[in-house]
Amino acid sequence: MIIYGVALLATCLVTGLYVGELLGQLLGVQANVGGVGIAMLLLVLASGSKRMQSLVTGPSGEGIRFWSAMYIPIVVAMAASQNVVAAVDGGMLALLVGVLAVVVSFALVPLISRIGPRSEPLPPLEQDADDAAKRGA
Amino acid sequence: METLSAVLRGNALVVAFTVVGITVWLSYWLSKHLTGGRIHGSAVAILLGLVAAYFAGLQTEGSRGVADIGVLAGVGIMGGGMMRDFGIVSTAFGVHLSELRKAGVVGIISIFAGVIVSFIVGAVVALLFGYTDAESLTTIGAGAVTYIVGPVTGTAIGASSDVIALSVAAGVVKSILVMVGTPMVASRIGLNNPQSAMVFGGLMGTTSGVAGGLAATDPRLVPYGAMTATFYTGIGCLLGPSLLYFIVRALV
User: pLDDT value at position B91?
Assistant: First the structure.
């Protein structure tokens, strides 16, 4: 059943957010500490466990895959609800702070990536979802 | 006309599915025919969303982009924190625990490096613009971390409200730039594998920026970047009003 996968996904998110809130309170911070990250770990663990196989394979798995395919449209909606005017109106100071923070952080990505063990580049991406669907059919 | 408007308002989320669907379709069409596929369709879609949010903001003087336009309120639900987090978690389906473990330590290093470096950049720029008190410097530095860390820090240490507003603006600029800029620099900074995506998420930290930027680069990298990014704001809120504030106060 599709709803089983969706329910598993929802349970992971709510549990993760709750743990994140508790972690925030424990640290005395007015923010959720890693709730979504914890939820993702729970989902990874659940999809790897033998006992939960019926919740992540077949139609149940489709329930999770549907939402992961909806991810980009959700991000587009998120972009469309940003306060872009405030960003533009913040003036030179806000603009400069934002730009420099991003540029410096971008520059650090290759430096810090070098610290750990290397992981392989992913294989080239499909041109777009439509092409992939055609090939899959 | 009134009836139509009532139907649209009464079914906000469903209307959002239609509107976003058309936007994505148009974006992929533009990507293919105007850029020859060089700029990915999802990057075009995110850019269109931001441009629409800008004009909507000018029109409505609200803070939620197109979501402040009555009939498009559903876009705010679809793109709100709840659906965003639900979508992000679902992308973890199919992620390998071994990849996460491999980059675990580097991921943690990148979170602290990201918070501290962004903070320093923000505080130094504020200093150059003539701010000299520890509260303003810390708050603007915290705004360079994310637009949540800025106001949380500013409120905690008692910064003035215009400085807090400035810190939010700086954070929003950062988040939008990460969304737009990531696909452009991805190949130059080696952003093509799970490990560098985790480092990227930890360094950038803005969940919306990382979510949008990686989606426009390669959706398969999203879960890895999001994993570290979601810890960033929490760590920022922890360090901003405490350790970082004390250091700034000792220096000025």
Answer: 84
Checking if the pLDDT of A127 tops 70, the result is no
Amino acid at B101: R
Q: Delimit the domains of chain B by residue range.
A: 2-80, 97-251
Q: Say how far residue B131 (Cα) sits from the centre of its chain.
A: 26
Interface test with B, best of A82, A99, A131 (most B CBs within 10 A): A82
> Given B65, B143, B145, which is nearest A83 (Cβ)?
B65
For the segment B68-104, what is each residue's pLDDT rounded down to a tens digit?
998 999 999 998 889 988 988 888 887 777 777 777 7
* Chain B neighbors of A70, CB-CB under 8 A: 87, 90
| Closest alpha carbon within chain A to B46 | A76
Number of Cβ atoms within 10 Å of the Cβ of A130: 12
Q: What are phi and psi of A124, to 5 degrees?
A: -50, 145
User: pLDDT tier at A129 (50, 70, 90 boundaries)?
Assistant: very low
Cα angle, residue B164 at apex, residues B158 and B165 outer, rounded to 5°: 155
- Give the integer Cα–Cα distance in Å for B97 and A93: 42
- pLDDT surpasses 90 at A136: no
CB contact under 8 A, A86 and B196: no
Minimal-distance CA residue of chain A relative to B48 = A80
CB-facing half-sphere around the CA of B10: CA atoms within 13 A = 6
pLDDT at A116: 67
Helices (H), chain B: 2-10, 12-34, 41-60, 73-78, 81-90, 97-102, 104-128, 134-145, 149-157, 161-185, 194-204, 207-217, 222-239, 245-251
**B125: nearest Cα among B135, B137, B112, B113:** B137
From the list A9, A30, A106, the residue facing B189 with the nearest CB is A106
Residue B58 pLDDT exceeds 50: yes
